[in-house]
């Protein structure tokens, strides 16, 4: 819900609004950065600390009823591409949040711009109608009569205005019909049609410069009456210097001087003129040297970006918006990204905010693509591994005992390699391996048979025991009744019996062929194969 502004509110003018941005607003802001344009409602303004404080102080005084001096006029000057548009949009978008402020942005790009008309264009027809209603009502009380002529005369007397303006104010407030009132308001606003003048028997010459000065004065008085404020940002002031007609330029300068000469008259108004430094400003000096001198005291310079620290501040602000919008974290890449920004060829040519902003976005896009490509490649690898794992599962399910032995040997060899157990001797056909790691010898015997039995197991245990020297023995045997082999494991101290079944083999297959980052040694692998351990865990 909007509220009325106070002097203290101005301290928040340049605060970072990151936390309040919607995803859509983030996307729009990033799009502007990519194009090198200023967002309509910027959410941050980096650096410029000294200037920001000066602007805050000017507005704080302006809204302080005990300190306000009346009309405020400032000029903001910037080199091309150095954040002028961003700065002024930050200002007027901030004031749009308050119910008692009319904030407008006006372009001075068009030649023959009439400053008075531009001011009135910023005021709604509704406000002009309310303004007329108020002052005509006050004049009627002073006139002690509802007679039209008496009221018009009272308006002239009370507000020191001409008869033409008094008549139009009366018609706007008390016109015989709605059409008449609308036409009168359009004249007050300065956007009338020729037939509107005929309606009231006016000539264009009747609406001279003084007429609209008086209208603006009445508007200023009305703003004070209702405790509202008008803030206008006049952008692209530099175009004035290229206007072909000297008279048009001088008229604009004269208008600005008139406002500055009458700050109390035009209170509750704040004008900001924004200017990119022009290549040719001679016209300002030659047309009106006095104005140039006066303007100099009202001008604030937007600082160029001048250090790596300032660039990094800009980078961080854009980075956190980019990461939030794309749901990404660049993590350790930040240093490399910043180096890429600072060393970009575009920066060597143009070291301004616009160039840095665009390069930052380019680098962010490049790194996001790199990370996306890596993610896709990883997903493809995982897919390949998963597919491989499924194929191995199917192969095990349909395999003969000979094929199963081969698969167990291949898996065991793979884990031996990962565990860094050096294979001293091997016989895949017999399923026999001898390994050495850290001077610890191990002998493995892998068995695959369609008819596992206690008798066969005992036979193989004897053979393994006979072949053992210094080694520790491992017998890997297919599942049979656990009760049948309970005593055997106790009797053979140097030999560990691993009883595998389809489920435990499939677990091992998933680990080895479905994971690109295997961190398993032989002991862990054998525990996974061992159905007795699996049953104990269950």
């Amino acid at each position: 819900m909007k509220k009325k502004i106070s002097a203290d509110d101005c301290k928040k003018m340049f605060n970072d609004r990151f936390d309040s941005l919607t995803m859509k607003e983030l996307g729009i802001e990033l799009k502007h950065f990519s194009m090198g344009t200023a967002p309509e409602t910027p959410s941050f303004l980096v650096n410029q600390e000294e200037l920001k404080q000066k602007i805050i102080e000017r507005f704080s005084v302006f809204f302080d009823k005990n300190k306000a001096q009346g009309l405020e006029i400032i000029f903001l000057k910037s080199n091309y591409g150095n954040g002028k548009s961003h700065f002024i949009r930050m200002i007027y978008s901030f004031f749009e949040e308050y119910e008692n402020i009319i904030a407008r942005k006006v372009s001075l790009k068009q030649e023959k711009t009439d400053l008075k008309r531009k001011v009135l264009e910023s005021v709604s027809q509704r406000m002009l109608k309310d303004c007329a209603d108020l002052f005509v009502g006050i004049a009627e009380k002073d006139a002690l009569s509802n007679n039209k002529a008496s009221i018009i005369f009272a308006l002239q007397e009370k507000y020191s205005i001409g008869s033409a303006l008094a008549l139009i104010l009366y018609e706007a407030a008390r016109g015989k019909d709605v059409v008449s009132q609308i036409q009168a308001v359009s004249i007050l606003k300065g956007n009338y049609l020729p037939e509107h003048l005929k309606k009231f028997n006016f000539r264009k010459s009747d609406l001279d410069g003084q007429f609209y000065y008086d209208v603006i004065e009445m508007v200023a008085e009305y703003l004070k009456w209702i405790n509202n404020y008008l803030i206008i940002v006049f952008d692209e002031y530099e175009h004035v210097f290229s206007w072909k007609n000297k008279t048009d330029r001088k008229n604009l300068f004269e208008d600005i001087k008139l406002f500055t000469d009458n700050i109390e008259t035009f209170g509750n108004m704040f004008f900001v003129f924004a200017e990119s430094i022009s290549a040719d400003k001679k016209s300002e000096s030659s047309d009106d040297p006095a104005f140039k001198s006066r303007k100099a005291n009202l001008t604030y310079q937007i600082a160029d970006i001048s250090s790596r620290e300032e660039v990094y501040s800009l980078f961080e602000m854009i980075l956190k918006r980019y990461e939030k919008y794309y749901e990404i974290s660049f993590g350790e890449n930040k240093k490399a990204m910043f180096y890429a920004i600072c060393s970009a060829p575009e920066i060597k040519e143009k070291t301004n905010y616009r160039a840095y902003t665009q390069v930052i976005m380019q680098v962010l896009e490049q790194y996001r693509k790199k990370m996306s490509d890596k993610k896709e490649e990883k997903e493809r690898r995982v897919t390949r591994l998963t597919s491989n794992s499924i194929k191995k599962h199917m192969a095990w399910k349909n395999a003969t005992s000979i094929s199963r032995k081969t698969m167990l040997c291949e898996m065991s060899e793979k884990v031996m390699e990962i565990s860094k157990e050096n294979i001293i001797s091997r016989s895949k056909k017999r399923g026999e391996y001898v390994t050495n790691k850290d001077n610890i010898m191990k002998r493995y015997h892998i068995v695959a048979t369609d008819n596992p039995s206690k008798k066969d197991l005992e036979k193989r245990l004897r053979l393994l025991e006979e072949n053992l020297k210094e080694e520790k023995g491992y017998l890997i045997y297919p599942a049979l009744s656990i009760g049948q082999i309970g005593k055997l494991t106790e009797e053979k101290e140097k030999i560990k019996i691993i009883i595998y079944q389809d489920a435990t083999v499939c677990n091992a297959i998933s680990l080895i062929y479905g994971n690109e980052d295997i961190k398993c040694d032989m002991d862990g692998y054998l525990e996974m194969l061992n159905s007795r351990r699996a049953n104990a865990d269950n």
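The radius of gyration is 43 Å. The chain has a mean pLDDT of 88.
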